[in-house]
Specification:
Blueprint lengths: L69 H26 L6 H28 L7 H11 L6 H13 L6 H35 L1
Helix pairs in contact: 1-2, 1-5, 2-3, 2-5, 3-4, 4-5
């Protein structure tokens, strides 16, 4: 069982390649339950421990923790972030062509939750790689990312956190509809801006 939606224009012009995600009753990925899809393929997250080269960044490099190096961690998490963002981009494209059904609105909310979780963890991982420590939770990651020039609008990201906390109350249809409206109009563009910023950091690392 899955919900399918054909995508319109997405982020391809910015070099972001959308992926296909489908809703399956048996899905093993929390938060993807009703994710809008393109096609019929499941694209699971890639392993978070594949080797990558270390990027340069705007901060002095910090010491690496034991275990997975931070340069690998943030880049692999970013790859997963792009996959989640692609599903949300499909939903945004569909919403421009017709009103979404209640089930599709739930799919938008779950795609938003998954994308947001990956987003703040990408920020945290990258900041830690650059030597910024003691980051606690999504608010701490957003504050430090804004302070260090990784996010242009810190207030918009704080409002995003508020909507993420409200999204657990989507049994209220009016609340759900309001969150979907803000996700499509405000949060999705903010996610896309972050993707462009980190794509540049990623590409710079590959040429360093």
């Amino acid at each position: 069982m899955f919900v399918s939606a054909r995508a319109g224009p997405r982020l391809e012009a910015d070099g972001l390649r959308p992926a296909a995600l489908v809703m399956r009753v048996s899905t093993g990925y929390p938060g993807l339950g009703a994710c809008l899809a393109r096609g019929q393929d499941v694209v699971p997250p890639t392993p978070w421990n594949a080797p990558e080269s270390r990027p340069d960044g705007p901060f002095p490099p910090g010491a690496k923790r034991s275990g997975m190096p931070e340069d690998i961690r943030w880049k692999q998490r970013f790859d997963n972030y792009l996959r989640a963002l692609a599903a949300l981009s499909d939903a945004a494209a569909l919403a421009r062509t017709r009103p979404l059904t209640p089930l599709e609105e739930q799919g938008v909310i779950q795609a938003f939750e998954f994308t947001h979780e990956l987003a703040w963890n990408v920020l945290k991982d990258y900041l830690e790689y650059q030597g910024v420590g003691n980051i606690i939770g999504s608010r701490g990651a957003v504050r430090e990312a804004f302070r260090n020039g990784l996010l242009a609008d810190g207030e918009a990201w704080m409002l995003m956190i508020r909507d993420r906390n409200l999204s657990s109350h989507t049994y209220d249809q009016q609340t759900a509809r309001e969150i979907v409206g803000r996700v499509l109009a405000e949060h999705h563009p903010a996610f896309a801006d972050m993707a462009r910023k980190f794509r540049a950091l990623y590409d710079d690392a590959g040429t360093a």
